[in-house]
Write a structure and sequence with these properties.
Blueprint (H helix, E strand, L loop, with lengths): L9 H4 L10 H21 L8 E7 L8 E7 L37 H21 L10 H28 L1 H13 L21 H23 L4 H38 L8 H5 L6 H17 L7 H9 L20 E8 L2 E8 L4 H26 L24 E2 L5 E2 L1 H11 L3 H10 L30 E2 L3
Antiparallel strand pairs: 1-2, 1-7, 3-4, 5-6
Helix pairs in contact: 2-4, 2-5, 3-4, 3-5, 4-5, 4-7, 6-7, 6-9, 6-11, 7-11
Bound molecules: fe (ii) ion (2 copies).
């Protein structure tokens, strides 16, 4: 790529509503950061297709009636913008010890370190998923899906920009250092890994991609919602706008899984298969059997639960007290927003049993957010199960128990079945391949991952979407691979 970065007019090249043109200092910091970002995109962004024309939406404003434009773009020329939701007049801090006081427009000194850390952790997840998904373009099941992958990727790139803007604008020199480090860490790298576990896992195939966008992007949604409540107004406004884009990522996941399930059911029906646990027979049809889909779901859901951290956490309590990170839909909750005497039931391991124990609500905020997350996850499950039952099959996809396959929190040192029965090491090792994808499952799925690049066609294992992106017809060329 040959962009002469010296000639880039950053104030106009970067769509923004933060008056970048007149903010010399931030403009200079972004100019300094941009070449490193482009190097990162070249090294760690989607493999191949960088010169293809992709039908992408680009955010250019925050007007809910029309905030994005669709057009063919080469990914390296995507205009990663900096957009904050409009400032609400007289906004107050909606929770914590400073409840009701005016929201901060500058970083409150006493909470500076905590705020910076939360922004860095959020920022670190954005490029990580791009890195995890970089190989997938080559095996896309259709041009439609390829386009969706790249849309998610460029928007995660923009989310990185959004966090870097906050670091550079509000945190001075150490903010700039953090911004550079966000480009230095790499998903799965032994020396400089990404900060959170799920973001160092491989995303080896498209079913994983759909599970990731359904379950892990949804963790992102919950985190963004709680940061959108922040008393630090620029963070709140940034996250509110990011949520607009995030909805599409979860749409990609939900409809992706739905289409896989649908194709499997159709193929089984057509072949007259009644026993859907006859995996060999189902796989011979070139579709993914439902028990394997359940295993993938078990894996991604449990990895995503770990992202919420320990159920009981003083960090979470401190961030809430400080007015930095609130609860999901904080302003719609009817209580004192300070949690002075409130309790919250937390699932804990008590004498070898999983029990609900009342804890101070303040320290149980991670648990609460995780519960909200689980409720949100259930919605998709209902839709997928409807596809299965409509096809006449008696099978339900289920979320595994929270004690299943955990690395963080109360259940990290025990083993449990997806039904929440505690088991010992020996049984776990003997049976875990019934519950989590085995190497053989991975090999089978990998064998299906053959690219389909003819306009309007789809791989054998996934059905076509009900509607096109931007209302385009089924034979729309979402990616012009050769240009
Ligand atoms: Fe994101
Ligand atoms: Fe996302």
């Amino acid at each position: 790529m040959n962009v002469n970065i010296m000639n880039v007019d950053y104030s106009t090249k970067i769509p923004n509503n933060v008056n970048l043109g007149e903010d010399r200092q931030v403009l200079k910091a972004l100019e300094g950061w941009h070449p490193g970002y482009m190097d990162w995109w070249t090294d760690m962004g989607p493999e191949g297709f960088q010169q293809s024309l992709v039908y992408l939406r680009t955010a250019y404003s925050v007007d809910p009636r029309g905030w994005a434009k669709f057009d063919y773009v080469k990914m390296p020329e995507y205009r990663w913008g900096i957009l904050l939701a409009p400032q609400e007049e007289n906004r107050v801090i909606p929770f914590g010890e400073n409840f009701g006081k005016p929201a901060w427009q500058e970083v409150p000194g006493e909470h500076r370190a905590m705020l910076r850390r939360l922004i860095v952790i959020q920022g670190d997840t954005e490029p990580a998923s791009v890195e995890q998904q970089r190989h997938l373009g080559k095996t896309a099941p259709s041009l439609y899906d390829m386009r969706n992958l790249f849309q998610v990727n460029v928007e995660e790139g923009r989310h990185l920009w959004a966090m870097v803007y906050l670091l550079q604008k509000y945190f001075g020199r150490d903010g700039r250092e953090e911004a550079d480090d966000l480009l230095r860490r790499r998903s799965g790298d032994a020396d400089a890994p990404r900060m959170l576990g799920a973001f160092n896992e491989a995303t080896p195939d498209w079913l994983s991609f759909f599970m990731f966008t359904y379950f892990t992007d949804r963790d992102g949604k919950m985190q963004l919602h709680s940061l959108a409540q922040s008393g630090f107004d620029p963070l709140s406004r940034t996250c509110r706008f990011m949520l607009t884009e995030e909805a599409h990522h979860m749409f990609v996941g939900e409809t992706g899984i739905s289409r896989v399930v649908q194709r499997t059911c159709e193929a089984m029906r057509a072949a007259g298969i009644d026993d859907l646990t006859n995996i060999e027979k189902v796989r011979a049809l070139g579709v993914i059997d439902l028990p394997t889909i359940q295993k993938k779901l078990n894996l991604h859901y449990s990895l995503s639960l770990d992202l919420f951290g320990s159920e009981v956490s003083t960090n979470a309590a401190n961030a809430f007290n400080a007015g930095i990170k609130g609860r999901y839909r904080e302003t719609q909750i009817e209580d004192d927003h300070q949690l002075k005497d409130a309790t919250y039931p937390v699932l804990k391991l008590v004498d070898g049993e999983i029990k609900r124990v009342d804890e101070p609500a303040l320290t149980a905020l991670n648990m609460r957010l995780r519960d909200d997350y689980t409720q949100d996850c259930v919605k998709g499950m209902l839709r997928w199960n409807k596809v299965i039952s409509s096809a006449g099959y008696n099978f339900k996809l289920n979320l595994p128990n929270v004690a299943f396959h955990r690395q963080i929190g109360e259940f990290r040192d025990v083993h449990a079945t997806p039904d929440g029965v505690l088991i010992d090491d020996a049984i776990w090792n003997k049976r875990k391949s019934e519950w989590l994808p085995s190497a053989a499952d991975g090999d089978f799925i990998a064998s299906l991952m053959k690219p389909v690049t003819e306009v309007g066609e789809f791989a054998s294992w996934i059905s076509s979407p009900k509607v096109g992106i931007d209302n385009k017809p089924g034979d729309f060329e979402y990616v012009k691979i050769e240009t």
